[in-house]
Write a structure and sequence with these properties.
The N terminus is likely disordered. The chain has two domains: about 120 residues, DNAb Helicase, Chain A; about 260 residues, 3-Layer(aba) Sandwich (Rossmann fold). The radius of gyration is 28 Å and the shape is elongated. With about 450 residues, it is of the alpha/beta class. It is built from 17 helices and nine strands. The N and C termini lie far apart (about 60 Å).
C-alpha cells in the first residue's frame, strides 16, 4: 500500500522518507496504546514487525517492547500501563516520558489500518537494511585483496538474497488446521516423486529425499564416503536431475579419475598411474561412456574455501540455467567455513553454524543437500566397531538438522579375512521420511563405487 493511500503526502515522502517512517510508527504505536478487548491490533502488528530493528526511532522500539511485554502477560496496553512497564524496565526516559506516550496516543490510526501502517514501517526498515548492506559491500570491496574477491562477492550476495527473501508477514503460515486439509487430501492421490535418487534400489526404497532435506552420510576415514556420495551424484545426474558436487578434499584430477573408473569400469589404479597403465580396453570403455558423461547435468566445484554463501551462489546459478533445484553434495562438511571470518570461533561453533545455514539454504531453494561427515573414534572402542549417530564429530547440530543420517560400516576394514569381505553396511540411523534400517551393498573400490548386492556381478553396468 502506498504512502499516499495512507494519507501521507507525496511531497513529505520526497522530502524526508524518515519522517514517513516515523509517522507510520507513531500511527501503529498509537493504535496499540488505544487497544480494547473488542479489537486488539497488536498480534497483527507483531506479525509484520517481528524484528526489533524495524523501528527507526529507538524510543519507539522501547515503547513497542513494553507493549509486547504487557500483551504477553494479558495486561492492558493503555498509556498508564505502558508508562509503568517502561518505568519498571528503566526505559521511561529513553521513550520520551509520559508526554511522549500521550502524544503518540493522539496520532493513532484506525485499528483496522494498523497492518497497513506496519507494512510501511517494515518496508522502510528493509530499505535501511538494504542501504546498510550496500555500504558494507563497498567497505569490504575497498579492503579485499584479489585472492578474497570470490569470498567477498559470495558473502555479499548471500546477504542480499537473505534480504530479498524477507518472509515477514507471509500469508498462509498461520490458520486453522482444516483450512488446507482438503487440498492436502487431494494431493495424496498423486504419488510424490523423490527430489533426488541414490542409484541404489534398496536405499531409494527407504530413503525418500524431499526438497529441503539435509542428508548426512558419515563414516570413519577410508570407509567409502567419497565413493558413496560421488556415486549418488552420478546416479542422480544420470537420471536427468541437475547435480552439484563441492569437492573440498579431492582435486579435479582425482575426482575425474574416480568418475571415469566408476562409469567406465576402468580400474582406478590404472587411471591414477596413467601412461601405459591405461590399456586399449580401458580407452575403449572410456570412449563408450564419454557421450553420456558429457551430457550429464553435473556441475563440479573444486573451490578449497567453501561457505554456505558460495553454495547458495552455485545453486542459484544452476537454477537459472535449468529451472530446477539441484542435488548438492558436499565432501565434506567439517571442511567448510562460515560466511563471516571469525578467528575466535571454535570448530564446534563453526560446524554448527554451517549446518544451520545449509538447512536454511536447502529449505529456501528446495535443494537436497548431502553432506559427507567424519565420525570420531568412538566406534573403534566399541564391540563390532559399529558406528552410532552420537559419533558425529564436531557438532550435534548436524544430527539435529539432518532429515536422514547414513552411517557407513565395513567389517573387512577391521578384519580383512571377514566372511563379509566386499560388503558395506549403510546404516540409516535417522530417517524422517521413512523407517530406519540397515542396507547392505557391495563396495568395488577398484572402480570407486558401491553397488546393489543383487547387481554387483552384472557385467552390463
Amino acid at each position: 500500500m502506498s504512502a499516499d493511500t495512507l494519507g501521507i503526502p507525496e511531497q513529505q515522502l520526497e522530502q524526508a522518507p524518515e519522517a514517513v517512517s516515523v509517522s507510520a510508527e507513531a500511527a501503529v504505536l498509537g493504535a496499540c496504546l488505544m487497544a480494547t478487548p473488542g479489537y486488539d491490533p497488536i498480534p497483527g502488528a507483531a506479525r509484520i514487525l517481528a524484528d526489533p530493528g524495524d523501528w527507526y526511532r529507538p524510543q519507539h522500539e522501547a515503547i513497542w517492547r513494553a507493549i509486547l511485554a504487557l500483551h504477553a502477560r494479558s495486561k492492558p496496553t493503555g498509556v498508564p500501563m505502558v508508562e509503568a512497564e517502561l518505568r519498571r524496565a528503566g526505559d521511561l526516559a529513553r521513550a520520551g516520558g509520559v508526554a511522549q506516550l500521550s502524544l503518540i496516543a493522539t496520532q493513532a490510526c484506525v485499528a483496522a489500518e494498523v497492518e497497513y501502517y506496519a507494512e510501511i514501517v517494515h518496508g522502510y526498515a528493509r530499505l535501511r537494511r538494504y542501504q546498510a548492506a550496500l555500504a558494507r559491500g563497498m567497505q569490504t570491496a575497498r579492503h579485499s585483496d584479489p585472492d578474497g574477491v570470490s569470498d567477498a562477492i559470495a558473502a555479499h550476495q548471500a546477504e542480499l538474497e537473505h534480504l530479498a527473501a524477507d518472509q515477514t508477514g507471509e500469508e498462509g503460515l498461520f490458520g486453522k488446521f482444516a483450512d488446507g486439509l482438503q487440498d492436502h487430501l487431494d494431493s495424496l492421490e498423486t504419488t510424490v516423486q523423490a527430489a533426488a535418487v541414490t542409484g541404489m534400489t534398496d536405499l531409494d526404497a527407504v530413503l525418500k529425499m524431499r526438497p529441503g532435506n539435509i542428508v548426512v552420510l558419515a563414516g570413519r576415514p577410508a570407509m567409502g564416503k567419497s565413493a558413496a556420495t560421488l556415486g549418488i551424484a552420478l546416479a542422480n545426474a544420470d537420471s536427468g536431475r541437475p547435480t552439484l558436487v563441492h569437492s573440498l578434499e579431492m582435486g579435479r584430477s582425482e575426482v575425474t579419475n574416480r568418475v571415469l573408473a566408476s562409469r567406465a569400469r576402468v580400474a582406478l589404479h590404472h587411471l591414477t598411474e596413467g601412461g601405459p597403465a591405461v590399456n586399449e580396453d580401458d580407452w575403449a570403455r572410456i570412449a563408450q561412456r564419454l557421450p553420456d558423461l558429457e551430457a550429464m547435468p553435473l556441475w563440479m566445484d573444486y573451490t578449497s574455501r567453501v561457505t554456505p554463501g558460495l553454495v547458495r551462489t552455485r545453486i542459484k546459478s544452476i537454477m537459472r540455467q535449468t529451472g530446477q533445484a539441484p542435488l548438492v553434495v558436499i565432501d565434506y562438511v567439517q571442511l567448510m567455513y562460515t560466511d563471516r571470518r571469525d578467528p575466535r570461533q571454535s570448530t564446534y561453533d563453526r560446524v554448527s553454524e554451517v549446518s544451520r545455514e545449509l538447512k536454511i539454504l536447502a529449505e529456501e531453494t528446495g535443494s537436497v543437500i548431502i553432506c559427507c561427515a567424519q565420525l570420531n573414534r568412538g566406534s573403534e572402542h566399541r564391540d563390532g566397531k559399529v558406528p552410532q549417530t552420537s559419533d558425529l564429530r564436531d557438532s550435534g547440530q548436524l544430527e539435529q538438522d539432518a532429515s536422514a543420517i547414513i552411517l557407513l560400516h565395513r567389517e573387512d576394514a577391521y578384519t580383512p579375512e571377514s566372511p563379509r569381505a566386499g560388503e558395506i553396511d549403510l546404516i540409516l540411523s535417522k530417517n524422517r521420511n521413512g523407517p530406519t534400517s540397515k542396507i547392505t551393498a557391495a563396495h568395488q573400490f577398484y572402480y570407486s563405487r558401491l553397488r546393489d548386492m543383487t547387481t554387483q556381478n552384472d557385467p552390463t553396468w
